[in-house]
Write a structure and sequence with these properties.
This protein is of the alpha/beta class. It has twelve helices and twelve strands.
């Protein structure tokens, strides 16, 4: 698997494993030779003019790298060791611990030794804070580090940035690079910038290998150089031309020497280092000079002072950004920015927009006094009383209508007097009407002894018996369900048509397998976890513009 952090290796010094005296490891060359070999770098940056004002005193530069050996002669007394965030157990005394980080530290703030021998950094009186977030390639724990999850690696960088910002650093130098961004790292950088820390990073060493037409002639961006608020640095050679390995992309803002830059290694020897790593360290040193002279200047103004005074005079290109930096001009520009104050306004402080209160027109309706408010209040109370009275009258009327007496009960009917005895009938006289004028059949007269009562018959009062209908027990209607006699018909069964399946004769034949043509396996195709190995050209001329690692154990850096 191609891991994003492999770009760290590409960014950590293309070359840089040569002593000043030759191409094999050796003891340190005489101090005068070191100063002479370094002078072109200091002259290109015009550092001597800036040193008339400051040499970086009072400033702490955080070197977030592979660690810094505080015991080397040109850094003695200037290094404070911070945390080791790699999670590895490699001892600082190991010969492969802090190789790259010590190089970068000497370029930033080396102060030489004895009578002026050794490396003099851009800010020789600045102090350094070493925070280890990556191992050198020769570190015994490198393989374990390389197998770590990507999120874990990025988180260690974010933690290192936060530690630097909260432990007194005013400049952060990161000569490292990743191909993938991280929200944690970006947030940490924004925190550092918001707290006044200038952040500088190398743009990467992918220019020679990866720029091409498919990317519009630009190399891929590198992180953290691509994050907002970071001053991204490319590399130039001793002639001021862009180094062939320097990543050219739109993140590049300025450039600095990056080919055969002298530096002191963790072993005390002196090395020529090439890559955008030493260029980044040089720019971080210039930022330290500005923060030393103007401690309260914001990171944005420090970046402006550096970019606006670079050699390109305002024009931009993706190879070197706004050009090669100039320490003296950048410091002078910072002084101008620090002296600027907001310009005075042509208007007096007492002036008001639109003429002030006097220009406000009068209200179209005069404000009402208390009398009007009282009158409206009384009207409102009166309306409320009227509404309450109407509701009360309506409720009372409804109460009167509901108080009429109810009809009384109907008196029960009295007993009906029983009828008296009926006298027995006498013999019916033959013919003629009876004594009482009755005519019986065949002339029957009135019965003997019977006389109709005199006067009208007494009438009992009419009492109507209420009609009561006797309940008629009705048998519920149960409808008998209609049962139709089923018509038994023999079911029609159609003979099923069964089709004999078609069986194609199978000719036993060995499966056809097309033999894959053998492919040449390139080193890029077969690497652990699919990584693309970091390669250097098999041979390169010792041209100072392109210095490649020597055959001995190789220090590395960006």
């Amino acid at each position: 698997m191609l891991r994003a952090r492999l770009a760290v290796l590409a960014a950590l010094c293309l070359a840089g494993a040569m002593t000043v005296a030759g191409t094999v490891p050796a003891v340190a060359a005489p101090g005068d030779d070191i100063r002479d070999s370094q002078q072109w770098v200091l002259d290109m940056l015009d550092v001597s003019g800036a040193w008339q004002s400051t040499q970086g005193q009072g400033v702490t530069v955080a070197v977030i790298d592979s660690g810094v050996n505080p015991s080397v002669s040109d850094l003695a007394g200037s290094v404070r060791s911070g945390p080791d965030l790699t999670g590895l157990k490699t001892s600082p005394g190991n010969a492969n611990w802090g190789v790259h980080g010590t190089w970068m530290a000497s370029i930033i703030a080396g102060h030489g030794h004895d009578d002026g021998s050794g490396i003099t950094g851009v800010a020789p009186r600045a102090r350094l804070l070493s925070i280890r977030v990556i191992p050198d390639k020769g570190d015994p724990g490198y393989q374990a580090y390389d197998s770590e999850a990507e999120a874990r690696i990025q988180q260690s960088l974010a933690t290192g940035i936060m530690d630097a910002a909260t432990n007194g650093a005013t400049v952060i130098s990161m000569s490292i690079g990743y191909t993938a961004p991280s929200s944690q790292v970006r947030a940490a950088i924004q925190y550092a910038v918001s707290h006044g820390v200038v952040v500088v990073a190398s743009s990467g060493n992918s220019g020679m290998d990866l720029r091409g037409e498919e990317s519009g002639g630009l190399a891929p961006v590198s992180f953290p150089a691509e994050y907002p608020g970071v001053l991204s640095v490319g590399a130039v050679n001793a002639d001021g031309a862009v180094a062939s390995f320097s990543s050219n992309n739109l993140s590049v803002q300025v450039a600095a020497p990056g080919v055969n830059v002298p530096a002191q290694g963790r072993d005390g020897a002196y090395w020529l280092v090439s890559g955008t790593s030493p260029a980044c360290a040089l720019v971080a040193g210039v930022a330290a000079l500005i923060k030393s002279r103007y401690p309260g200047m914001s990171p944005q103004l420090v970046d402006d002072a550096i970019t606006t005074t670079a050699s390109s005079s305002g024009s931009y290109n993706p190879d070197t950004g706004f050009g090669t930096i100039d320490a003296t001009k950048a410091l002078q520009k910072a002084g101008q920015l620090a002296a600027q104050r907001p310009g005075s306004s042509p208007e007096a402080a007492s002036a008001r927009f639109g003429g002030g209160p006097a220009a406000v027109p009068a209200a179209p309706v005069a404000p009402r006094g208390n009398g009007h408010l009282i009158a409206f209040g009384l009207l409102g109370v009166l309306a409320l009383l009227l509404m309450i009275g109407g509701i009360w009258g309506l409720a009372r009327r409804r109460g009167d209508a509901g108080s009429e007496p109810a009809a009384g009960p109907v008196p029960a009917a009295g007993p009906v007097p029983a009828a008296g005895p009926v006298p027995a009938a006498g013999p019916v006289p033959a013919g003629g009407p009876g004594a009482a004028g009755y005519w019986g059949p065949g002339g029957y007269g009135a019965s003997a002894g019977y006389a109709p009562p005199a006067g009208p018959l007494p009438q009992a009062p009419y009492r109507e018996t209420p009609y009561r209908e006797a309940p008629h027990p009705e048998t519920p209607y149960l409808e008998t369900p209609y049962l139709e006699t089923p018509h038994w018909e023999a079911p029609h069964r159609e003979a099923a048509h069964r089709e004999t399946p078609y069986l194609e004769a199978v000719t036993p034949e060995a499966p056809h397998r097309e033999a894959a043509p053998p492919e040449a396996v390139t080193p890029e195709a077969v690497t652990p976890e699919g990584r693309l190995p970091l390669e250097r050209p098999a041979s390169e001329s010792p041209d100072p513009e392109q210095v490649w690692p020597a055959p001995w154990p190789e220090p590395w850096g960006q």
